[in-house]
Amino acid sequence: MTIRIAERVRQLKPSVTVAVANRAKQMVREGVDVLQFTLGEPDFDTPQRIKDAAIKAMQAGETKYMPTLGDPETRKVVADKLTNENKIPGLTPEHVAISSGGKHTLFVLLHCLVDPPAPGEQAAEAIIPVPAWVSYRPICEMAGAEVREIPTGPETSFKISPEQLREAINPRSRVLFLNSPSNPCGTMYSESELRALAKVVHETRDIAPDLVVITDEIYEKIVYGGIDHFSIGSVPEIAERTVTVNGLSKAFAMTGWRVGYCGCPGEAGAALIKAMGTLQGQMTTNITSFNYAATRCALTECAEEVEQMRRAFAERAVVIQDRLAEIPGMVMPKCTGAFYAFPDVSAHFGKKSPEGREINAALEFSEALLLEAKTAVIPGEDFGGCGKNHIRISFACSTDQIHRGMDRLRDFVASLR
């Protein structure tokens, strides 16, 4: 007997990030000394006061169903945060949705914004600057959108220009993704650059009247390269066409808590959030009930802990940048945000490893590095665009591990012939 699997799932590619990380973990379980630079997960523990807030809420009986998009008190805390920190105008609790992590927030958003094409119709388009986080494309495609990529490269710090954006926007444009600071690129847009992109979105509103900007700002507090974080949703001309997505995973070291949120002001924003509640109500309903107290604590009481982690990432960024600069053929711009280095390794394509593995792609480079140098990184193919020439190195780990890993990478590169 066989069970027929839905075609949309059969065609869905597994996350390469998770696949490589799981393979490396399996090698560790088998006793192999593998150094992990794969998952985007802070090595810090969740701040104690956040844990205490959740425990207190649990002990107080906050273990029941909650409103689908979050209790009013927590939605207000999120709205206040987006208003006061991100300068997004006109946000109230009804403009906020709380979901089971940033990925779930994006999934719900896309299914609220995009319809699959009817027979004979062209699909709506999602504009994605690439390289980009691996889940953007499949989330868009599952919702029925066709992805239009805008290519970038190290020479522009992986940032699109206003001219590129203007050329990409057309009547089918439904969603524009922005991610600053960037996963996988480790770079970010300045305020002036984002304002220039916002101007294009505003000026092309007659061409693409249904275009919505989705700005993924999950790494907003992990910045260290002299560029201040800026939310494009604060630009008045496009504020009511911009959904700001964020969560607690990265800045607060809360990956396992699964708390994501988004906000969009105005009458249209309130309608979109209401639609998200309708869909989420048929999926997950609310997040874990005692996590709301933890969310309020994180957003209002933990600036000191966040800053301590940010400083650690800033120090690590300098270390890994300096170490990579010592290795021939590693081309990359300065790391300015998040905790990723994204070097171009294509200078080593056409070579062979000591065990005879041919290196003609980032995937083959990463495979040989894992098996022969016991160092796990993410190959860049699934990030799109020029990612096929790159590897992603997460430095969400100790400085000691960074040095040991870069030693192994240096020796591996030197061994290629």
Commentary on this structure:
This protein has 13 helices and 14 strands. It is of the alpha/beta class and 417 residues long. It is globular and about 60 Å long. The model has no long low-confidence stretch (mean pLDDT 96).
Shape by Cα distribution: globular
CATH domain class of the largest domain: Alpha Beta
Give the amount of beta strand, in percent.
Answer: 5-15%
The DSSP helix count reads 13
Order of helices and strands: HHEHHEHEHEHEHEEEHHHEEEHEEEH
How many strands, what sense, and barrel or not for the largest sheet? 7 strands, mixed
The strands making up the biggest β-sheet line up spatially as 2-8-7-6-5-3-4
CATH superfamily of the largest domain: Type I PLP-dependent aspartate aminotransferase-like (Major domain)
Radius of gyration: 22 Å
CATH topology of the largest domain: Aspartate Aminotransferase, domain 2
Low-pLDDT runs: none
Average residue pLDDT: 96
Q: Which helices and strands, and how do they pair?
A:
Blueprint: H1 7-10, H2 16-29, E1 35-36, H3 48-59, H4 72-84, E2 96-99, H5 102-113, E3 125-130, H6 136-143, E4 146-151, H7 162-168, E5 173-179, H8 191-203, E6 212-216, E7 242-247, E8 260-263, H9 266-281, H10 291-301, H11 303-325, E9 340-341, E10 351-352, E11 358-359, H12 362-373, E12 375-376, E13 378-379, E14 391-394, H13 399-415
Parallel strand pairs: 1-12, 3-4, 3-5, 5-6, 6-7
Antiparallel strand pairs: 2-8, 7-8, 9-14, 10-11, 13-14
